[in-house]
Amino acid sequence: MEQDEQLRSRVIAIIEQSMKMEPGRVQPASTFEELAIDSLDGINIAFALESEFKIDIPDDVLPKMRSVADITTGIASLLAAKANGASKTQTAERGEA
Amino acid sequence: MKRRVAVTGAGVVCAAGSTAEETWAALRAGRTAIRELDEPWARAGKYHVAAAARSFDPSQYFEAKEAALMDRFAQFALAACGEALRNSGLPLSDELKARTAVVMGSSGGGQGAIDAGFVELYGTRSGRVHPLTIPKTMTNAGTSHITMKYGLTGPAWAVSTACASSTHAIGQAFWMVRDGVVGAALAGGSEAPLNPGFWRAWEAMRVMANDTCRPFSRDRKGMVLGEGGAVLVLEPLESAIERGVPILAEICGFGMSADAHHLTQPSPSGAAAAIRMALNDAGLNPGDIDYVNAHGTGTQANDVAEAKALSLALGEHGRRVPVSSTKSVHGHALGAAGALEAFATVMALLEGVVPPTANFTELDPECDVNVIAGNALEGPLRAALSNSFAFGGLNAVLAFRAPSAL
Predict the structure, then answer these.
(1) Which of B5, B258, B316, B399 has the fewest CB atoms found within 10 Å of its own CB?
(2) DSSP for B313-327, written as a single string
């Protein structure tokens, strides 16, 4: 739970930085629609999220990220998939060894 | 007094063919030239398909020393221009050379040259940038090489309006011939975007497809980059008749507009304004249009907006008129796209053949247009439009009449 909140704060900070918004403008319940974030802003934010979390947001996932809540959930699952993939790779490497 | 203007020559280099004839054969058959790229820089990225001009061999056109002075985009411009001039048989007397305009479009100019320079600078190499980087990169390089090769001393410049560049170029050249400012014009465009830096920048836009280009299809994924060049020879109809040369089409209208809306999102009303202006300029009614060569990039946003624009500008006829996007065959060649598509439109009118949209699956219900796909639609065509709508909301539309309608 605490981890989720931490993740959410980072997501909010990235949206605010990408959009040049004053801190506090983006709230946990904010949506792109309320914040007047369009598709070009969306790819800017996605680029910043990818850099921050060292993940790849696939093209078919991005359109579903339209709010702070969506993004937080989406990033959490991409991070989980990444961790899972990494441990699988490690297992495979050990298996080969 | 305004003069009527004929298209008397065309030259083309693109993924679909290295000549106008080869390209038209591919367009007519709907044979897509989109393929997987093998280059390591493309394999390392997220998207790997493009329409690359694999059969283009610079050594067939240029001495080694001459080729070394040019980026690939300028090579395409010259190759296409040479073919267009040969086909037209334009008698370039000294008098006509001084009264011939050259107007060429390109979005990025010599992106390959600047990319190579920056590898030297930022990569682990020499830290030095080659002295020819600027003259190879400048967007007017294609235009300049054409003037020098043929000794053309009339008005000459380059146009850069992203994906509408060469449509704007042809339109401006057409107006100059029509107004009697020049005696002839070579107009078109060229683009060579398939290099690592430019490609990555396009990837980051998230508008590219990784399967193929499927304009107006429900399952379309985006645009696919292409490369090449195309040039049309424009001259007064009267002089073409006097010379007794074959007339490919009459170019009769040009419209342009700005959306004043968004850097990347198209606006149907802006596009419709350019279509209306082209019709007006040509003295044509919506019902006279028998074919529309669409901008048809295959992105979600473009195809929906373009379908709406056709209805806005052409009314009920906008839903019935045969429409196709030849980007499905030659890819999206950015600043060369408008010239490639103007060529496709001219050939459609000349032969009475609507080239089909390749890779089409099922119509997107959001796109209420009559998409011609699968096989070409054969039958006489009276007049046609070629649409180009650029990033940044700059729109350009050309109108042509069939030579049989003269």
Answers:
(1) B316
(2) HHTTHHHHSEEE-TH
Q: What is the pTM of this model?
A: 0.94
> Would you list which residues of chain B are within 8 Å, Cβ to Cβ, of chain A?
46, 204-206, 221, 262-265, 301
pLDDT by residue (tens digit) across B126-166?
A: 888 999 999 999 999 999 999 999 999 999 999 999 999 99
- What's the token pair of residue B393? 């909301």
Domains of chain A, start order: 2-96 (1.10.1200.10)
How many CB pairs below 8 Å do chains A and B form together?
18
DSSP character at residue B134: H
ipTM of the complex: 0.81
Q: Tokens 């007339």 sit at which residue?
A: B247
- Tell me the residue range of the domain where B300 lies: 253-405
* Number of CB atoms found within 10 A of residue A58's CB: 10
Q: Select from B205, B221, B265 the Cβ nearest to the Cβ of A38.
A: B265
Q: Do A40 and B265 touch (CB under 8 A)?
A: yes
Q: Which residue of A has its CA nearest to B206?
A: A59
- Any domain includes B59: yes
Please report residues of B whose CB lies closer than 8 A to that of A38: 262, 265
Q: Which residues of B touch A62 (CB under 8 A)?
A: 206
B248 inside domain: no
Task: For A9-27, give the DSSP string.
Answer: HHHHHHHHHHTTPPTTSS-
User: Do B229 and B266 sit in the same domain of this protein?
Assistant: no
CATH number at residue B359: 3.40.47.10
